[in-house]
Specification:
By secondary structure, this protein is mainly α. It is built from two helices and no strands. The longest helix has about 50 residues.
Length: about 80
């Protein structure tokens, strides 16, 4: 009789753990969506609302900003190492 109740207890524990993992997985997916996916969607929507002149100006500055960022990181890495 005791073995039967242990099996039932293990089955209940397994079911509750499985339910917990499913809930946790959904919460993790929601957190990823809020932290990463939604800001990218917002950025894309913002970009689509911009005029052609603004897009051209930003596209002109992008290489300069990228070069400046790389130079800054190289300088910081050189001084820290």
């Amino acid at each position: 009789m005791q073995r039967h109740s242990q099996k039932l207890w293990r089955a209940e524990v397994c079911q509750s753990m499985r339910a917990w993992y499913l809930i946790q997985g959904q919460l993790d997916l929601e957190a990823i969506d809020v932290a990463f996916i939604q800001p990218l969607k917002d950025l894309h929507a913002w970009w689509e609302r911009q005029s052609s002149a603004t897009k051209a100006y930003i596209n002109l500055l992008t290489p300069l900003i990228g070069t400046g960022l790389v130079a800054f990181l190289a300088k910081v890495m050189k001084t820290t190492l």
